[in-house]
Amino acid sequence: MLMTKERRPAIRTLRGWALGVLQEAGAIHECEEHGWAKDRADPHARERALDVARQEPPDGLSPDHAVAEVREVLDSIGDTCPECPPDPN
To answer: Could you report the per-residue pLDDT of 32-88, keeping only the tens digit for each?
Structure first.
């Protein structure tokens, strides 16, 4: 029987790759209503994402550059959706 390894979807940009890594690790999630990425503020998920970046950087990118890209993308994401009304609490 032919066995295949599950492939990650092809990426078009480095930012897209970093967003995928962060989402797979559970460090970010999407606003259900508007689709914006939101930070889950989970330190364990962030560390998992950084580990993936170190161990499986995209072709042609060093592990250090991959980690830097994941950190840069994570730093650009807030914990609220910019289109959702503020929580009154």
So the answer is: 999 999 999 999 999 999 999 999 999 999 999 999 999 999 999 998 998 998 877
Under DSSP, the state recorded for 38 is E
State pTM to two decimals.
0.81
Whole-angstrom Cα Rg for the chain: 15
SS3 64: helix
H helix runs in the chain, sequence order: 14-25, 43-55, 63-75
Rounded to whole angstroms, the Cα distance separating 26 from 49 reads 8
Residue 57 DSSP symbol? P
What is the tally of helices (H) and strands (E) in the chain?
3, 2
